[in-house]
Amino acid sequence: MVEVLIERDDEGRVQVVTLYGDDSPEGLAARMLVEAPILGMKNYLHLDPEVSREGSVLRVRVDRSDLFLDREIDAIMETMVLGLQALAHDRPG
Question: CA-CA distance, 2 to 46, in Å (whole number)?
């Protein structure tokens, strides 16, 4: 079973993503969808999201220290959300 919790701020912006995954194909796909924004924020936007991994749990706290990058961060994170929704629709469970 794979579960993703998305915490948003008062403005609806993604702040924290927590993935409770497993080694199933769906779990691996969900992990890649959560890890891709980490790479985008680090390598493209030069931000430093807080990432922790404990067993099958992956937790990401979005770095929103640069207010001028909010639109770009939102685009990256909402694309992740759409990918996770598509995965849940196509592969429930």
Answer: 29
What is the model's pTM? Answer: 0.92
Q: Give the gyration radius of the chain's Cα atoms.
A: 13
Two tokens, residue 84: 């996770």
Tens of pLDDT, residue by residue over 3-24, are 999 999 999 999 999 999 999 9
Q: What is the CATH number of the domain that holds 77?
A: 3.30.70.1490
Output the CA angle 6-37-69, nearest 5 degrees.
95
CA distance 39 to 49: 9
Domain that holds residue 77: 3-90
Domain count across the chain:
1
User: How do residues 32-71 score in pLDDT, each as one tens digit?
Assistant: 999 999 999 999 999 999 999 999 999 999 999 999 999 9
Look at the chain and count its residues.
93
